[in-house]
Amino acid sequence: MADDATTTARDYRETVFLPDTPFPMRGGLPKKEPEILEGWAALSDKGLYGAVRAARQAANAPLFVLHDGPPYANGAIHIGHALNKTLKDFVVRSRFALGYDVDYVPGWDCHGLPIEWKIEEEFRAKGRRKDEVPAAEFRKRCREYAAGWIEAQKVEFQRLGVLGDWWNRYATMDYASEATIVAEFHKFATSGQLYRGSKPVMWSPVERTALADAEIEYHDHTSPAVWVKFPVKAYDEDRYAVSGNEAGDNVFRLPPNDASVVIWTTTPWTIPANRAISFGPKVEYGLYEVEALEENLEFAPWSKVGDRLIIADKLAEDVRKAAKVAQWRRAEPVDPTGLICAHPLATFDEGYGFDVPLLAGDHVTDDAGTGFVHTAPGHGADDYLVWLKSGYALDAIPDTVDPDGAYFPHVPLFGGLKVIETEGKKAGKFGPANGAVMDKLIEAGNLLARGRVEHSYPHSWRSKAPVIFRNTPQWFIRMDQAVPSLGGKTLRETAVQAIADTAFHPDAGRNRIGSMVETRPDWLISRQRAWGTPLAMFVDKETGVPLMDEAVNRRILDAIQDGGSDAWFELPDEHFLGDRDPAQYEKVVDILDVWFDSGSTHAFTLEGRNDSRSPADLYLEGSDQHRGWFQSSLLESCGTRGRAPYKGVLTHGFTQDENGEKMSKSKGNTVEPQTITKESGAEILRLWAAMVDYSEDQRIGKTILATTTDAYRKLRNTTRYLLGALAGFDEAERVTDYADFPPLEKYILHRLWELDAQVKAAYEAYRFSDVIRPLIDFCQGDLSALFFDIRKDSLYCDAPTALRRRAYRTVLDYVFERLTVWLSPLTSFTMEEAWTTRFPDAGSNVLRVMPETPTAWRNDAEAARWAKVEAVTSVVTAALEVERREKRIGSALEAAPVVHIADPGLLAAFDGVDAAEVFRTSQATLVAGEASGAFAVDEVKGVAVEPKLAEGKKCARSWRILPEVGTDPRYPELSLRDAEAVAWWDSVHAV
């Protein structure tokens, strides 16, 4: 092409067919995206989503249902929300593009403690304690708070480009939702799966409620560790007589009694609740008599010479060191069966004067501690089970700790002391109970040793405060009772089968949720809070049996449908009970576990609608939801319908900072989606989400986003080139006969055929990175580096009527047609901008369905040919780079390489191909055979290059150097090809 430095009789620049498009090189996404969103919103009364659904339904498209796992309506969205909702949008848009009618209704989880806390804080700031606020007023403010955040989050999600039925969003606090949740709860009650039991459950004193396993997370915690002596009070006379040892020991010397069983615990505060000691039937125990203590210590050991201690043999050395014992002897083996001990605090208060039996328990090992487990059946699951299994009564389990985490007043010696603080700056910290118990054990002479241990301890995932096991009456759903409505199977069996019937992405999720369901306890569904859906039922005061009267339940559901959960708490019992005597029934005022709420969303979001169905095709959430929403939805649906509410489950990992560390505001390493959207555009966030392997934990930060932006820039440049190169293309120009396409065009069509199958398969399997990465490689490799680069001379300089140029532009049209729809689910804004730039009156790009790619485009021979051509070209390019570096040529157009090819297969690959055009040189010569002394590279054997200079004159228009330049008298500065093109141009532009 001519430039300002070229002296010619005519300036030919106006005759060059340069790409032309208004599509800007810079995206300006923060400004452009809102404009596109406005256009989408105007397409129907439900925006773009409604328009696409209407089009698909009109075409009788198959239905695909993605059910939204509800985020919590509390606070602005974070990067985890953005990833989750963007992945869901990839699913929605890709299924639309694959030809499905997609149902996706976004929803919110609204009940629960985080909102309660926020509202408590609001009222405290106004000088009002929660117990001073009427319950109706408190719930009303909770509802208003959640509603405000639903609207705020909805705007933020829509800004990311997320499609969905935002106009009919669901919320667990909607009256209709609450009524359905209660109806689902009634199904469990009427089927016999519900029961009330008094057992130790995870209890949060700070939140003043029971917690389910899914609401617990474990953190490192330092606890006091104590070794406590329980004096032996009685033993089996037939099992122990006078010792056979020469010393003539009687194992327990009764009387006097001076042998003790030693236990080890990290919860000294549970000692007042002790009612037994558990031992392992397979553990070997011995009686150890202290003979000498360690000397020169800073304190006197609590152990004394002559102490006789019963411990597990395997742990004896650990106990000896902890007790500062220098020497002891093992006097006798001991079988703990039949032993009865005294409580270590029995000498201080007759309230501890009960017997402490030793119970055989399979949960006891000799891996740590003393081989004996202090057993407080009101404060531990294993303790509770071994107590009942050993035949002891449920009503013999003491209540020692109140809902606020303090000892009840009736607890001897310690009444009122806090186990966990619940008020002020120390809220969530352990109170004085541990220290007070240890002091009394020292005073009683029954503390053998103490220390500190760092271990994993359960905390509430909401408050982050430690929890305790506490015996309370709660409502549970049975996991292991045969249920007639489930065909005689148990809920656990039904759920395990449903897991086997579900598709998991990745498949490892099946084992994860499966192992949890197989081992989980009964489902604790009751909570003692104000903001939630009630366990709306009555219980017979005499029998404790729930009242399951169809008429009563109907009145309950009608009332909640009309007035929400408030109706249950505010209307008198007579309103529901009808002609039944209210004095005979207890009204249950607990609320349901929020996981039961969200686990029921399928019932009020998918069922009962003509344009949806249950089970859903897919649930998509973070991997932590195997123990959360995936599991609660599974159990709820299996218990009421005998199947899972989903056909497939997809999980993603968590988003970390660039160093792989968990994001935390305190660390200052958070990445806010709002900032990315404002500074770079939502498209960059979407491209990042598409490129990562979401099944694992992902990383994000400035450097990673810069790399993503660079990848976006290349995609945009490819799109811009396509638009410019296709300016003015119409059907009259299209090449319709496949035989007329040159080899290079046939190769690109083959690549489109390959990519079509890859892209569709990847979208079907939700492998979004397997869409974007091959397409980026295609754009940068096959298109920019090969196709565009080779054919730019034809595009710029061939006459528009030339077959080569027409074939090139025809294939570019096919590329544009496919790229814009293939990439539409991922880079939605940019593909919309590109499509409407070229076809402003064709409607939204999202309305399109991926076109079928003709099987005739498959051409393995051309794929093999171009692999060989590119191998040879790489050697030529390397040779010319040397020439350019040595300043023997300025550009490749000054060269006329002679290429020696020894491999006949490589040489044959150039049949029908213009080697000079492929090499981007003015001339080229291919020679069969080898050449000594010519340029070669080790990677491509049998190819050598002589980088000679092109002979002839330089064309003033295309800059190619050819002998033919000047042979057309009409245009003496041009090559013959360029002369014909200019002649065409002149005829078109003739006055």
Structural class: alpha/beta
Rg to the nearest angstrom? Answer: 39 Å
Main sheet, how many strands, which sense, barrel? Answer: 10 strands, mixed
Globally, the shape reads: elongated
- Mean pLDDT across the residues is 90
What count of helical segments does DSSP give? 28
Helix content: 25-40%
The fraction of residues assigned to DSSP E strands is 15-25%
Strands, total number:
33
Q: Quote the distance from N terminus to C terminus.
A: 25 Å
Which segments are poorly predicted (pLDDT under 50) over 5 or more consecutive residues? 1-8, 241-249
Structure explained in plain terms:
- By secondary structure, the protein is of the alpha/beta class.
- 37% of the residues lie in helices and 17% in strands.
- It contains 28 helices and 33 strands.
- Strands 7, 8, 9, 10, 11, 12, 13, 14, 15 and 16 form a ten-stranded mixed sheet that branches. Strands 2-1-24-25-18 form a five-stranded parallel sheet, with helices on both faces. A four-stranded antiparallel sheet has the order 6-5-17-19.
- The protein is elongated.
- The N terminus is likely disordered.
In short:
With 991 residues, the protein is an alpha/beta fold.
Supply database-style keywords:
991 residues, alpha/beta, 10-stranded mixed sheet, 5-stranded parallel sheet, elongated, disordered N terminus
Please outline the helices and strands.
Elements: H1 29-41, H2 47-58, E1 63-67, H3 79-97, E2 101-105, E3 107-108, H4 113-125, H5 135-159, E4 170-171, H6 175-190, E5 194-204, E6 209-211, E7 216-234, E8 259-265, E9 276-279, E10 285-293, E11 308-312, H7 316-322, E12 325-334, E13 340-342, E14 355-360, E15 372-375, H8 381-389, H9 433-444, E16 447-460, E17 468-477, H10 491-500, E18 503-505, H11 508-519, E19 523-524, E20 526-527, E21 538-540, H12 550-563, H13 566-570, H14 573-577, E22 585-587, E23 591-592, H15 594-599, H16 601-605, E24 618-622, H17 629-641, E25 648-652, E26 655-656, H18 673-679, H19 682-691, E27 698-699, H20 702-725, H21 743-764, H22 769-797, H23 803-822, H24 828-838, H25 860-885, E28 898-901, H26 904-908, H27 915-919, E29 925-928, E30 935-937, E31 940-946, E32 953-954, E33 961-962, H28 976-988
Parallel strand pairs: 1-2, 1-24, 3-4, 8-11, 9-14, 18-25, 24-25, 26-27, 28-29
Antiparallel strand pairs: 5-6, 5-17, 7-8, 7-13, 7-16, 9-15, 10-11, 10-12, 13-14, 17-19, 20-23, 21-22, 28-31, 30-31, 32-33
